């Protein structure tokens, strides 16, 4: 039997991203300038390449989400036994608190997911290996119920955690989980969901401003509250509408693709000067860093295509722009086929593991949503960390099951 809640929620997410790209495409046509990451830099629309970019975006979304991801997601096999133990809830609580602590006091996650050598070794290894931001998110989709006080406590801590670490996109992911739950319970209609989406669009600019304030506070060493309220007082309605359009344009990538295609020769030649081959793409992943240290291999400073594109746009390498999957072909040429193959393998692996965590397709929904983010942003590195966290979560469940089997056997 087809899972109606899963189908409804994935379609909702797909249409939001699709409509955002369509709307922004027409909006850019109207203004004559590209927005999103390119907003405010007076970069003109290429009226020939923009519709091609839109086609590429739509084709990529459909190919991965409705052709690749369902291959294993629809396979029927015996998954891992559901764990309804409080041990899992309290373990996640501890990990959640550690994640919040590392974010508040050491700024972990504020500028990305890479290893941070300025924090204690234990905390660094804890964050890099367990990836609390992902692990707790998987836990929510696994539980998919907020009736227990311990789960609500975890949710409250996590909400503070993602805001203070500047990773507010997780709030959107949790919104889709809420839609899934309510749709399954039959307690919400499509019209009410549209109302909640509208409220979210109205409120989110304030959250987006808070995210920017968190980043600026981390970089400048200034008070978070001072920066945030200064933005509100001095920016006024102009600041609000600026972040409102940033919110709308967050779901689009058509502007970035057009810019990349329009400047493909310049970007390829400029990036080639850095001698960053496609083989170095995963060089900062902790496993390869560990192997390099074991064999005393000198690691080379690596600038990702996303960071390089960001520096081309505004001269700053403290952020990363979106390039999708197709963008890798501009930066790596033929070598990007490695990225393409790797992305397909990762998506299939995520789909398989999510199906193994058979939970009425709730975890599969999470994998689907993060795959959509991969296609929009092109963050292979972050997606690999999500796959790693799925493996760790399954390991935790198996250990808990083994513990109770051992106790029953005594």
Explain this structure to me?
The relative contact order is 0.15. The longest helix has 31 residues, at 190-220. The two termini are 40 Å apart. With 410 residues, this protein is mainly α. The model has no long low-confidence stretch (mean pLDDT 84). It has one domain (4-188, 253-409). It contains 18 helices and no strands. It is globular, with a radius of gyration of 21 Å.
Largest sheet: none
Taken together, the total number of domains comes to 1
Number of E-type strands: 0
Mean pLDDT comes to 84
Helix content: over 70%
Alpha-carbon distance between the two ends: 40 Å
- What class would the helix/strand composition place it in? mainly alpha
3D shape: globular
Number of helices: 18
- What is the rounded Rg? 21 Å
Strand content range: under 5%
* H/E element sequence: HHHHHHHHHHHHHHHHHH
Q: Give the low-pLDDT segments.
A: none
Provide key terms for this protein.
410 residues, mainly alpha, 18 helices, globular
Structure, briefly:
This protein has 18 helices and no strands. The protein is an all-alpha fold and 410 residues long.
Task: Please render the helix and strand layout as text.
Elements lengths: L3 H28 L17 H20 L1 H4 L12 H21 L14 H10 L1 H12 L5 H16 L4 H17 L4 H31 L3 H26 L4 H9 L1 H9 L13 H9 L10 H10 L12 H6 L3 H21 L5 H16 L2 H30 L1
Helix pairs in contact: 1-2, 1-8, 1-17, 2-11, 2-17, 4-6, 4-7, 6-7, 6-18, 9-10, 16-17, 16-18
């Amino acid at each position: 039997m087809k899972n109606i809640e899963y189908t409804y929620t994935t379609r909702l997410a797909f249409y939001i991203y699709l409509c955002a790209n369509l709307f922004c495409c027409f909006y850019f046509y109207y203004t004559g300038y590209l927005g999103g990451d390119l907003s405010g830099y007076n970069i003109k629309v290429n009226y020939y390449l923009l519709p091609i970019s839109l086609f590429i975006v739509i084709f990529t979304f459909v190919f991965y989400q409705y052709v690749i991801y369902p291959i294993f997601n629809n396979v029927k096999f015996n998954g891992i036994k559901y764990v309804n133990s409080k041990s899992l809830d309290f373990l996640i609580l501890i990990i959640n608190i550690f994640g919040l602590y590392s974010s508040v006091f050491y700024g972990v996650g504020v500028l990305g997911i890479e290893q941070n050598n300025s924090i204690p070794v234990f905390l660094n290894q804890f964050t890099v290996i367990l990836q609390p931001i992902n692990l707790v998110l998987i836990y929510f989709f696994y539980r998919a119920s907020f009736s227990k006080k311990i789960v609500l406590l975890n949710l409250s801590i996590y909400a503070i955690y993602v805001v203070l670490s500047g990773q507010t996109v997780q709030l959107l992911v949790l919104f889709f989980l809420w839609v899934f739950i309510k749709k399954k319970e039959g307690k919400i209609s499509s019209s009410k969901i549209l109302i909640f989406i509208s409220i979210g669009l109205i409120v989110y600019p304030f959250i987006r401003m808070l995210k920017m304030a968190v980043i600026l506070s981390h970089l400048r060493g200034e008070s978070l509250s001072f920066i945030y309220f200064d933005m509100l007082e001095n920016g006024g309605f102009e600041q609000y509408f600026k972040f409102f359009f940033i919110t709308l344009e967050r779901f689009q990538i058509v502007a970035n693709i057009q810019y990349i295609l329009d400047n493909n020769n310049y970007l390829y030649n400029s990036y080639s000067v850095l001698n960053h081959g496609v083989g170095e793409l995963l060089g900062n992943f902790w496993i390869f860093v560990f192997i390099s240290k074991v064999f005393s291999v000198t690691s080379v400073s690596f600038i990702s295509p996303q960071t390089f594109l960001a520096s081309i746009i505004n001269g700053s390498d403290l952020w990363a722009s979106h390039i999708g999957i197709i963008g890798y072909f501009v930066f790596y040429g033929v070598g990007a086929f490695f990225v393409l193959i790797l992305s397909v393998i990762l998506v299939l692996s995520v789909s398989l593991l999510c199906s193994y965590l058979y939970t009425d397709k709730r975890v599969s929904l999470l994998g689907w949503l993060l795959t959509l983010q991969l296609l929009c942003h092109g963050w292979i590195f972050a997606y690999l960390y999500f796959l790693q966290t799925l493996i760790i979560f399954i390991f935790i469940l198996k250990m808990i099951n083994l513990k109770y089997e051992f106790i029953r056997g005594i």
